[in-house]
Design a protein that fits this description.
The protein contains 6 helices and 32 strands. The strands form 9 sheets. It has a 5-stranded antiparallel beta sheet with strand order 30-1-2-3-32, covered by helices on one side. Strands 5-6-7-8 form a 4-stranded antiparallel beta sheet, with no helix packed on it. Strand 15 and strand 16 form a beta hairpin. Helix 2 packs antiparallel against helix 3 and helix 5 runs antiparallel to helix 6. The chain starts with a helix and ends with a strand.
Length: 461
Amino acid sequence: MREILLFIFGTAGSLSKNTRSCPDQELGDQCDAQCRLIFIECRGNCADSVCESVCLHEYSECNDSCPCFHDCPDGCDGCKHPLCFCKNPELDNPIYKQCIEEAAARQKKCVTTCYANNACFERCNDDFFIDSARCPCMSECPTGCPCDGGYKCQPFITSICQRYSYKHSYIISADGSFKDNRYYSTPDVDGFSLEGVRNGYLNGEIFFFGGNNSPRQITKLNECSIELISITLLNDFEIDGMLVTVPTMPNEILLCSGSAPYTKCEDFNGQITRNNPYVMNFQHDCGCMALDNNMPTAIAGRDTETGDVHSKIEILGLSGWQYGKNHPIAARCMGCVSLGNGILTLGGNKITDGENNFSDEIYLLRNNEWSFAGRLQQGVVTSSLLFFDEFIISFAGSSYSENAIVERLEWNGTHVTSSTTIHEHNHLCFHPIVFKTSPDKCVDSCADSCFSWEVKDHFFY
């Protein structure tokens, strides 16, 4: 069996390899060599032929995905293999550029402490070469992200907020080790503000809705510019409204409970807005909404007529809003996020013995059943959340402490296993705007009508 495997292994690459001339053959060969090393290591840990067959299958899949091989016959043109981002990393690879920038920043900081000491300068340079070698596409991570033992490839997130005279606009890495201001031009219109604005994704674009100053305005992010569009909402949409992107044909953003009577919704498809024909059964003032099995699910909130905070759940189906299983706690202003196969809720303002209390509880909705999934480091309300398979980032709007924290929650599929505070805001910021972004975006992109943090805040850990 071992001889057969070796024969197949020796010919697998040539069988899947593109026989035509390929512009990225050198990268393809480098990729195939890496696949072979992984196969050899895998097979070396095997004790039987079944294990060796699994290794061979994995090698075949690895090899097929390489540029110039079966899945990418035209090389890196249209190929999503990470190695293709190493073709011109200084131009096309934002993670490479970020890694080099961080290494250069550490070198600069080191040099400024040397005080005319050549040995110190040399040590700083040596450290830079060590750091840069760990970057994607460099010697210790030759095939790009992920880097085994090298640079930590991770998502980056932009957060934007305006509340009264305070505003911030920054990017932060998912582990909090990097944070820097980012700059966006805004409409040169008297009274324009992002205070109370909520954001949503639609067909790869980011839209902003409503706000305290212009509750029917819609703006869109165009590169590093926030621009007004000609379409407006049909109803006021204030900060305590709910929205979610619905994967229909075509995709739409559903906006609900943005203003009185807090039971109406409207749809936005990027071109027009229209009133949704279905009216909710309950008022969900400062409720939250997310997708459960692609179905919009409105969770809890406040009845503005009675003032009562409730735990009612509604699910939008083909025939309208249907009752769901109540949330475990009656609360308003919870944060919630879609998991693909469920919904996670975090925090919220609940009434205990007639008093407002910020909850630190986390609950999971799956298969129409609620279960306790963990606790936050402190009670929070009006959070904005992003889900990344193995962790969640929570940007608190307000919390018990003076600072609203940004918290990373490790997720195992059913429970939060641990959490880390990766940043703190020394102000309140209800439902901050947050979205995934590239680390090299909007570093220095505007001069007039520029939305940015007033105080420079840039750090590496």
